[in-house]
Design a protein that fits this description.
This protein has 248 residues and is of the alpha/beta class. The protein has seven helices and nine strands.
């Protein structure tokens, strides 16, 4: 797809992935808009060349204004916490609002989902057609699965949508996973010590499918080697738009 002359809206532009995608698209698209809920943050995005537009996924009217004349929506926004109501409002109702406006306006949608929709299988090779963890108790996983189902329903009605399932995305700042990963590892180590001290048998789920993606090399200093770099992941994403790679 040729992006010259195209207008793109990025949701979740205040987050780790959304901001980086928006900045990468600036050189090719006619306009890159960022959906923002806090008007006081407009200046910081304007200084980057991103057009800030006020909007909220829970308010369909605001999305209609934000998506006026938009050709593509890159939907990165999502609620990652454990509050069921907030998860439903953002990840389910928000997707319905966005998909409705996109279908009505003819905008195409690139939806960022997650490998978490598979749950935590003990083993096995996973593909796009592998079963989803529809009975998983976590609100995030439940609502991300539901958001995919909603978008597939809209696709049957004519919405042009593509769904990607990246693993955990880590960065040196503004990262839900990166900012918390060291603390999570410390807590996991303490829990494992307690379990091992009990002398009882245990099974650790195989989380190989999660395949973390790193925004920088910083976390490598902790001794962790990424499956792929953030640049490599971005190259794969940009290929969907027929854009050149980030490096030779």
């Amino acid at each position: 797809m040729e992006l010259s002359g195209k207008r793109i809206l990025v949701t979740g532009v205040t987050g780790t992935l959304g901001l980086r995608i928006a900045k990468r698209l600036l050189s090719e698209a006619l306009e890159v808009r960022g959906l923002i809920r806090q008007a006081e943050r407009f200046n910081e995005f304007e200084s980057l060349g991103i057009t800030p537009v006020f909007g909220d996924l829970t308010n369909q009217t605001s999305l209609e204004k934000a998506m006026d004349q938009i050709d593509w929506v890159v939907h990165c926004a999502a609620y990652l916490g454990d509050d069921e109501n907030l998860a439903r409002q953002s990840n389910v109702e928000g997707v319905i609002h966005l998909a409705t406006v996109a279908l009505n306006t003819g905008a195409r949608v690139l939806h960022i989902s997650t490998t978490s929709v598979y749950g935590e299988p003990a083993d096995g090779h996973l593909t796009e057609s592998s079963p989803l963890a529809v009975e998983h108790p976590a609100p995030y996983i439940q609502t991300k699965i539901r958001s995919e189902q909603i978008l597939n329903d809209y696709a049957a009605r004519g919405l042009d949508v593509r769904i990607l399932r990246p693993g955990a995305i880590c960065a040196e700042q503004d990262s839900h996973w990166g900012d918390r990963q060291v603390r999570r590892m410390q807590e996991a180590d303490f829990r494992m010590r307690l379990i091992e001290a009990s002398g009882k048998p245990y099974q650790v789920p195989d989380r190989a499918l999660e395949r973390p993606t790193y925004a920088t090399d910083k976390i490598k200093t902790l001794g962790y080697k990424p499956v792929r770099s953030f640049d490599e992941t971005m190259d794969a994403l940009l290929a969907l738009f027929s854009l050149p790679a980030t490096r030779e």
